[in-house]
Amino acid sequence: MNLAYKVLSTHLKEGNLVPGEQICIQIDQTLTQDSTGTMAYLQLEAMDIDHVQVEKAVAYIDHNMLQTGFENMDDHEFIRSVAKKHGIVFSRPGNGVCHQLQLENFSKPGKTLVGSDSHTPTCGAMGMIAIGAGGLDVAVAMATGKYYLQCPSVIQVNLTGERAPWVSAKDIILKVLQELSVKGGVNKIVEYTGEGIKTLSLTERATICNMGAELGATTSIFPTDENTLAYLKQQGREADYIEMKADEDATYDQRLDIDLSILVPMVAKPHSPDAVVDVKDLEGMKINQVVIGSCTNSSFADMMHAAQILKGQKVSDHVSLVIAPGSSSILAMLSKNGALADMIHAGARILECGCGPCIGMGQAPLSKGVSLRTINRNFKGRSGTNDANVYLVSPEVAALSAIKGYLSCDFDKDMTLAEVPNTPFIKNTNFFIDEYDPTTEVYMGPNIKPVPRGEKLDTIKGKVVLKVGDNISTDHIVPSDSKLLPYRSNVPHLAKYSFSKVDSEFYNRTIANNGGFIVGGDNYGQGSSREHAALVPNYLKIKAIFAISFARIHRSNLINNGILPLIINPNDYDFFNDQDEYEVCDIKNAVENDIHSITVKNNTTHKTITVSLTLSPREKIMILEGGLLNAIKGGKF
């Protein structure tokens, strides 16, 4: 048995480990962050539970930390009060990025974790099954200890050889993305094997697992070994170590071999994480901004590597360098050992420990500027500047380029990085609040609005209100920037900006038509786990979305909100236009009776096509009831 299925099998509650079948697994841990957490906790409150039903639930504040108005702090106080009421650990603002903190403080080999952030798979570095999901799925996991998903197949990525100097874990995952693409991991787990693993520290493995989300993968996972144990000792948690590895004769559904010895520093070009080329191909490109940090590359080792390169140097005059350590512990250690001073003396700006620039919360680049970032996504406009070009690189390439003023991997021949010691972490428990009082009154600020609820399935007809192409991300559907993030608990307000960077008239057109249909291409809904990309269409009365294929988390979020994800043949994409009236024929009967081929009729031309819909028994109930929350409240689950 492979490692992924070993962990799944010990947590299997329903179903069989057969790719494509629906399964239910027991969840040991959950995490939320404040961008998705407010809605998740509104949904948890609606379930009327006492104490959460998982071993450890943690609510992090790491996204909405620019308190330019009351909205963000209101959300934080709401989350803090809900956490106290239900026995959830609360991580204060400034403590750090949820994935880095979860890895440091709570990750355990062989456990399961589900989180309302797509980069939850970071903890796969610890030999966990760690899955990103929509907020409602996480709320249900907290309330019941269960999570439902399509059983994934497993890709073996076999690492051999030894890395050349200046080749990082970031380059390894960029190579995997170059090979498999942003949709190559949909409904799959990526399991890393091979002798090359021994050369990767725990946090390097975390970088790789983190950006596995960009493959569309359910999760990624590494075996545990002496490097895992060394990291746990560094955190003072060596008692949590257990050996986790695949059987010698383990089988996989797909295999990718990567020889680490032939890798070179790589870069993802705008505007997709899989638009990967060698840094040498773009060397000399002038840059305006460098960002080092995010949940992908903000570990102690990442920070120390950047500090070593910057020490005694000067950031180029035309470059803004910003650095965000991943946790308060890492920041304290950098302060204590002098590395923080080296960064500052070089001309770096030190940001609060949090997500910051990665999710458009400050540090927007220059208009038409070039920003090198160590983050995981470079979708158009995500940085906060719609015409900026964002490139993804390693911390080492980022630091060197900040000094030179242009993209470079031309490290001096006599330059080497000193090995970062496994220094015991400086732990500060003052950033965590772990209290339980079921009588706690939940704080509700004026910006917090009720969760939109869908309607029971009936006839579906209307006009196409938007037609888009391939790889539409959740950033396209509900933009994420400093202006809109404070309204994640206010769906009516967010709805006004839905698809605003794609079609500024989408909202007005949808309101005028009382809802309608959206048509998409391949890999519709890729990227973030943000449930708002389904909550907003639900609020706008979008009853179905036609697409050639859907990203895993977004498909689940649509069904959770009672929206039909209908698969179209690529040849039928041009069947849809914004002039005619369409009808999904006999849809209620099709769902009730598991009819997978459904007729869609153009009521203007009377032409028809056939679309596909495959639902599990549980998903069928959700669609019929108008969403998961309706099904729960109606006693169906």
Q: Report the total helices.
A: 21
Low-confidence stretches: none
Mean pLDDT: 95
Instruction: Report the strand count.
Output: 27
User: How can the largest sheet be summarized?
Assistant: 7 strands, mixed
Percent range of helical residues = 25-40%
Radius of gyration: 24 Å
Strand order of the largest sheet: 24-23-22-21-25-26-27
The end-to-end distance, rounded to whole angstroms, is 32 Å
Shape summary: globular
Quickly give the structural class: alpha/beta
Beta-strand level of the residues, as a percent range? 15-25%
Features:
globular; 21 helices; 6-stranded mixed β-sheet; alpha/beta; single chain; 29% helix; 637 residues
Can you offer a commentary on this structure?
The mean pLDDT is 95. 29% of the residues lie in helices and 19% in strands. The chain has a 7-stranded mixed beta sheet with strand order 24-23-22-21-25-26-27. It has 637 residues and is an alpha/beta fold. It is built from 21 helices and 27 strands. It starts with a helix and ends with a helix.
